[in-house]
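To close the section, here is one more complete example, presented without commentary so you can practise reading it yourself. The ligand is magnesium ion.
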Amino acid sequence: MVTTEKTLAIIGAIAKVIEENKQYLSDLDQAIGDGDHGFNLARGFEAVSAKLQAQPPANPGAVFKTTAMALISSVGGASGPLYGTLFLKMAAAAGDKEGIDLAGFAALLKEGVKGVQERGKAVLGEKTMLDVQIPVLELLEKEAAAGSGGKAALEKAVTLARQCRDGTKDIIATKGRASYLGERSRGHIDPGAASSCLMLEAIAGEL
Ligand code: ADP
Ligand code: MG
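Output:
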């Protein structure tokens, strides 16, 4: 069961991995966008960490809510509102529950991913963060139904996320800034798919 404290540790691990990879993510974005993805997110998660320290949250849902608000208010670009929506929907679905198990996490993520889809109007296969998020959600739902443990399921999810991240290379972007490049967006990993993959790695590492 993931408690409030564990949720805080997970968000801290995400902030760390984004900070460590901000140049990598921005280099990916330089190839098919405007080169700001990693710097955007690193600034966002710095704001998240500061806010979480200033007002310690009472439950996992409150951790997600603070994360969402900090991302929305500090990240420019498409990814701020999208990741902000993801965490905000997860917060709403978590309510005031004191802990989250695998089935609970899959249920929260379902709401979060639905939010990203509604906000960005993208579907699977458009070379966005959803190309990692949707398959991972489906895998976690199956693992939860099969009664798997959280750590084992998240490790499987990381393996799948890496394949999906790399798979975005073969896709022509039809949403977001990269879509302006059309055919020339092919051959590059989508930065948002890469950041979603890093976040999952951070979650798995904390379980
Ligand atoms: P911007 O494109 O405004 O500079 P970022 O560089 O921070 O924003 O984020 C780019 C990432 O956002 C892309 O790599 C992609 O994964 C994601 N993205 C862009 N548009 C959408 C969308 N409509 N739906 C889902 N994800 C999107
Ligand atoms: Mg960008």
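Once you have examined the tokens, check your reading against these statements. The pocket of magnesium ion (ligand 2) is lined by residues 29, 33-34, 36-37, 77, 177 (CB under 6 Å). The domain at 4-206 is CATH 1.25.40.340 (Serine Threonine Protein Phosphatase 5, Tetratricopeptide repeat).
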